[in-house]
Design a protein that fits this description.
Length: about 700
């Protein structure tokens, strides 16, 4: 199963004082904010002819100075603004101009997200109708589909024949259907689990006969499977939708002009675990001046999405009442009680049409839904596409704190004006080639402190593997012991709460971020898991590729519950390899997870036996029954006729304590030999040791070592 991201929440408003104490040092080279504005009267008619003096833009309630203003009109003479020269003479240093839409480059992205047969027909017809109306000069369309993956059906073009063909291809065929299997499972679970006619999720009491017990158990097992499958499905679908839209937004940010996304879907899945990514994607769309118009391709329907939200909230409420009123605890009851918060949180996002509404309105567009006749709304969309005002301002607040900055645009000259514009953005620094999440901003500020805070124990580093095509394959590793992380107890419900945030950056010699790793993990778990939690380590890895050179690794760990933070900086040197054979860095093994369904060739920690979870600690317990487990990879010279051999040495004070030369497994398809060495520590005295791995092939050898303490 593919690795899934932990649930994340927006934390900037609730950060510990220690994280807020210092002013940030991050400032962007270009912080201007561009806002497309559509203005209508109370009857829905477009208001034309407004000037810069008619509009006021505020950020977080504070009026901003407009540095650029443009009125874009679909037809000559449509914008009857006062002359720009008069306005410029009255407002110094403010640029105002009127342009015709024919001279303004416009980019439209048609996106079709998992449409059923009816949705495909509606989406196809609406798209073709829109193309007929709005394929004018300097207008370029692209076509994308989202299903099990993200596909570019047609890159941006103004060729009508190609676009029609792409729309037909994107709206034909069948979507992957996950829902039918879940629906069948749900009916089975409900039939078996509610055979006694109970309407509330009351756990079974007392003893029942064998047959009844079997049916109840079967129903409960099916319900557990359904709950788990539903969570995974919502996460997978939500992730695919959000990151596909994000991919479009990131590329559009590089281009000038009016940028619009027409998003055809039958609802937008948004599990609680994807909310942070969703908000960050909306923020980047707003910074990129991308407007999203969402079209619910289900058309007119009698089924309300709010029903699903109400069902989840009702289920959470039932279990909450049970927890308050019952005197008899059961394992099943406790398990369901622990899920009450998750159900309540998910209920807030279960209305898929509301998620489409937020996607559209947050970026300055609108939602088209609950109708089979899209023509009036498409006409309105076309108007907004061709007639609007473009405002640019330089924010007075240049602090990058990760907070949401609300944008409000108003018209001072007309009381009946209804303004449609994007609602804001997150104040995040810009990293070329990297996505910055809002929860990362406070940690980035910590890295600007001098001296760096040291309130938590953690390690971060880069494990280097093989070099090919001039790039070093490596793994960025973050290792945080959990024994010192604070937690809050809730004895009444038998749960504990903790919150961990980590960030690691790899910067080149010029200070550019070439790789980034981060996680924001709030946990709310049963008390019986606390001891195991405190004995564990929070380990995160990311596969990276680095060119030879000198780098800096900057890392931060934050214990939100304990209001503590630590940061470190270290130097990393990637050497250029001259020999054919080599040995990777050696790392201690924390555990070996099950093999991934699909092995990632870029991830050197994915090996045939499973996925290696490394640890950066340098001390291990010794004694009877203890093992020293280490991982490394051998890269023999594929052109040599000599078979490779490995010699493993354990040294103390430079003297060999033990030496072995184990048989090697066969090389993989890429010629590498991943190896896990397990050394018994029964008779090894406590001291500092050096573990050394030597690859011998004919007259050539390569060697790597690691120093560690056996306690």
């Amino acid at each position: 199963m593919k690795q899934r991201l932990w649930a994340v929440v927006l934390i900037s408003a609730a950060l510990a004082p220690s994280l807020r104490a210092q002013a940030p040092a991050f400032r962007s080279e270009s912080t201007d904010v561009l806002v497309d504005v559509v203005v209508r009267d109370k009857h829905g008619r477009l208001i034309r002819g407004l000037t810069r003096s008619d509009l006021v833009v505020k950020e977080d309630g504070e009026e901003q100075t407009i540095t650029s203003f443009r009125a874009v009109s679909a037809s000559p003479g449509a914008a009857t603004a006062r002359p720009a020269e008069a306005e410029q003479s009255r407002v110094a240093a403010v640029r105002q101009e009127r342009v015709q839409v024919s001279t303004q480059k416009r980019l439209v992205s048609l996106v079709y997200d998992r449409l059923g047969p009816d949705g495909r027909r509606l989406g196809r017809q609406a798209s073709l109708d829109f193309l007929k109306k709005d394929l004018g000069p300097n207008v370029y369309y692209a076509v994308f589909t989202i299903d099990r993956g993200f596909k570019v059906v047609q890159p941006y073009t103004d060729d009508m024949a190609r676009l029609k063909k792409a729309v037909e291809a994107a709206t034909s065929g069948e979507r992957s259907d996950f829902q039918s299997d879940l629906a069948n499972m749900s009916r089975t679970a409900n039939a078996a689990g509610n055979a006694d006619g109970a309407e509330s999720p009351t756990p079974s009491q007392g003893t029942v006969d064998g047959a009844a017990m079997s049916a109840a158990q079967a129903g409960q097992m099916a319900k557990e499977m359904l709950d788990f499958s539903e969570v995974l499905e919502r996460e997978d679908l939500g992730r695919m939708s959000v990151f596909s839209l994000w991919a479009i937004v990131k590329e559009l940010r590089k281009l000038p002009g009016r940028k619009t996304v027409l998003y055809f879907a039958e609802g937008l899945q948004m599990p609680n675990s994807m909310v942070e990514q969703f908000k960050s994607m909306l923020s980047e769309a707003n910074r990129a001046n991308v407007t999203v118009y969402a079209i619910d391709a289900r058309g007119l329907t009698t089924v309300s999405d709010q029903g699903a939200a109400n069902a989840k909230l009702s289920e959470a409420a039932q279990w909450s009442r049970y927890a308050r009123n019952t005197q008899n605890e059961t394992a099943a009851g406790n398990k369901q009680e622990f899920r009450t918060f998750d159900r309540a949180a998910d209920s807030l996002r279960a209305n898929q049409q509301n998620e489409m509404l937020e996607l559209a309105e947050s970026t300055g567009g609108f939602l088209i839904a609950n109708t089979n006749d899209l023509r009036p709304n498409l006409e309105k969309l076309s108007e907004e596409f061709n007639t609007y005002y473009e405002i640019t301002y330089h924010p007075k607040n240049q602090v990058y704190d990760g907070r949401f900055r609300a944008i409000a645009v108003s018209v001072t000259s007309r009381k009946d004006a209804v303004v449609q514009a994007r609602d804001g953005y997150f104040a995040l620094p810009v990293m070329e080639g990297q996505t910055v999440f809002s929860y990362e901003a406070p940690l980035l500020r910590v890295l600007s402190r001098n001296p760096l805070p040291r309130e938590l124990e953690f390690r971060a580093g880069v494990v280097q593997f093989r070099q090919r095509m001039g790039l070093q394959q490596a793994a960025l590793v973050f290792d945080l012991p959990l024994k010192n992380v604070a937690f809050a107890k809730d004895e009444k419900v038998g749960k504990y709460r903790t919150h961990i945030t980590v960030l690691a950056l790899v910067k080149d010699a010029d200070g550019r971020v070439v790789s980034k790793l981060s996680r924001d993990v709030p946990l709310n778990e049963p008390m019986d898991r606390l001891e195991g939690f405190q004995q564990g380590r929070f380990i995160v890895t990311r596969a990276i590729n680095l060119a030879p050179g000198r780098y800096t690794v900057e890392s931060v760990a934050a214990d939100q519950e304990g209001q503590r933070v630590s940061a470190k900086k270290s130097v990393l040197v990637v050497m250029r390899h001259t020999g054919e054979a080599s040995v990777s860095d050696i790392t201690l093994v924390r555990r070996i997870d099950k093999p991934a369904e699909e092995r990632d060739p870029q991830d050197a920690l994915q090996v045939p036996v499973g996925r290696i979870v490394p640890t950066l600690i340098d001390s291990v317990p010794g004694g009877s029954g203890k093992l020293l487990s280490l991982f490394f990879t051998l890269y023999p010279d594929e052109t040599s006729q000599d078979p490779p051999k490995v010699v493993l040495d354990l040294l103390r004070d430079g003297q060999v304590v033990s030496r072995t030369s184990p048989a090697l497994p066969p090389a993989g398809p890429d010629g590498s030999i991943p190896y896990v060495a397990n050394i018994p520590l029964d008779s090894v005295a406590a001291a500092q040791y050096q573990f050394r791995a030597t690859l011998v092939q004919g007259n050539f050898g390569a060697q790597k070592s690691i120093y560690l303490n056996i306690e």
